[in-house]
Amino acid sequence: MKKYSLVITVLLISTIIFTGCQGESEVIGAEGETYTPVKVSTIVTGNMREESVFTGQVKPVKEIDIMGKFPGEINAIYFSVGESVSQGDILFTFNETDMRHTVESLASQMNSAEAAVNSAKLNVNITSGSQQESQLNQVKSSLNSAKLTYDNAKINFDNTQTLYTSGAVSKSEYDGMEQAYLQAKNAYDTVRQSYDLLTGKQLYERTELAKNGLQQAIASRDALVVQYNNAKETLSDLNVSSPISGIIATKNIETGEIYNSSFPAYSVIGMDTIIIPINVTDDLINVLTIGDVVYVTIQSISGEEYTGKITEISPIPNDMDFTYPVKVEVSNANHQIKPGMFAEVRIIKNQVNDIIVVNRSHLERIEDTWYAYVVENDMTHVRPVKLGLDNGKEVEIMEGLKAGDLLIVSGKEYVSDQEKVTIVE
Q1: Are residues 293 and 177 in the same domain?
Q2: 356: burial class by Cβ within 10 Å (0-12, 13-18, 19+)?
Q3: Residue 239 lies in a domain
Q4: For a pLDDT cut of 90, what percent of the chain falls above it?
Q5: What would the 3-class secondary structure string for the chain be?
Q6: Count of structural domains, the chain
Q7: Which of 57, 237, 291, 318 has the fewest Cβ atoms within 10 Å of its own Cβ atom?
Q8: 223 and 109 in one domain?
Q9: pLDDT over 90 (residue 228)
Q10: Are 47 and 26 found together in one domain?
Q11: Which of 188-192, 296-300, 341-345, 361-365 shows the lowest per-residue confidence on average (mean pLDDT)?
């Protein structure tokens, strides 16, 4: 295990000293011995995560395209790209002159239609309501009275006719009784015709005609009410507001232009929370659950670590590489994270605490064994170590090191086992 060393012979060192060209990779002891300078770090226990790293591109959790509901002239614009808006803030307005005239015209037509409905209701009441019922009761009373008079007159006439046949009454008495009978019969027939008229087919037709007229009047009025309400709603829609709080991402209109409602006038994105879609391999998908905590870094900002959580796990792999789509949600209250940035998402597979953790670069691998260089009593000791968890940068030391050991972190390339060294800052 002898390694390349910068230690030189005493004779050569003396020569360098005399020539004023002493090297920086060695220190001369009091008795002329040479010591290789090294930097060390005291081993302490720590925690370690075994993680899988995935890359995704940041997207806003909400992205809304805002369109006007109808064509019209843009009257005013209140926000530009990059500005913050709150839910309900008015983004732009349409010219309202024409629509106000339409609302006023429909209001007038609606009043006229209401008057027509009231008139039709009155007509129905006349044909089938209380007035018709009163008239029918009067005619019915007259019919009953006429029928009683007719029945009595007929009885008297029949009796007189019998008496007249037997010669018991005179011809003049017979004629008088017959005349009374015929008058009662005519009166009864007249009243009965009036009654039949009020209760028969003509009355039904008049009533149905009145009801149909009422229905048409109501339908016309209701249609105008719908048009009026729509026009009023349109009048309120002349002020177009943002449905969410966020940042203006795009603005596609200008004051004075005619907007044709075929494209978004604005788009607003929610920035308080962002989404990072990632694709997870099949060996990990079954251990994930909604709400799991993950760790996110974005190098284009500062490499700062953010905490996120899994909000969506697809049970179906995509067709491209058969990985599973997963969505991660991260709080972004200060709006530092922007859509389009690339993020690294680290999913924790395992975590252990209170263990010996060192940077992999501070170890050396020879064949299949890893070694650590430690300093004891100014002497190097090369120890074989057994590794545990490995996150690609740091490794767990299961055997070979303990807390308090002085691990060489700089200069191990220049020393061998059992070699004198001096520790420098």
Answers
A1: no
A2: buried
A3: no
A4: 44
A5: CCCCCCCCCHHHHHHHHHHCCCCCCCEECCCCCEEEEEEEEECCEEEEEEEEEEEEECEEEEEEEECCCCCEEEEEECCCCCCEECCCCEEEEECCHHHHHHHHHHHHHHHHHHHHHHHHHHHHHHHHCHHHHHHHHHHHHHHHHHHHHHHHHHHHHHHHHHHHHHCCCCHHHHHHHHHHHHHHHHHHHHHHHHHHHHHCHHHHHHHHHHHHHHHHHHHHHHHHHHHHHHHHHHHHCCEEECCCCEEEEEECCCCCCEECCCCCCEEEEEEEEEEEEEEECHHHHCCCCCCCEEEEECCCCCCCEEEEEEEEECCCCCCCCCCEEEEEEEECCCCCCCCCCEEEEEEEEEEEEEEEEEEHHHEEEECCEEEEEEEECCEEEEEEEEEEEECCCEEEEEECCCCCCEEEEECHHHCCCCCEEEECC
A6: 4
A7: 291
A8: yes
A9: no
A10: no
A11: 188-192
Provide the domain limits for residue 137: 101-233
Measured from the Cβ of residue 193, the count of other Cβ atoms closer than 10 Å reads 13
> Hunting for tokens 């395209």 — which residue is that?
65
Residues 239, 93: contact at Cβ < 8 Å?
A: yes
Token duo for residue 168: 């018991």
Amino acid identity of residue 268, one-letter, is V
Backbone dihedral angles phi then psi of residue 60, each to the nearest 5 degrees: -70, 145
Domain of 221, CATH number, reads: 1.10.287.620
Per-residue pLDDT tens over the stretch 93-127? 988 876 777 777 888 888 888 888 887 777 777 66
Structural domain contains residue 418? no
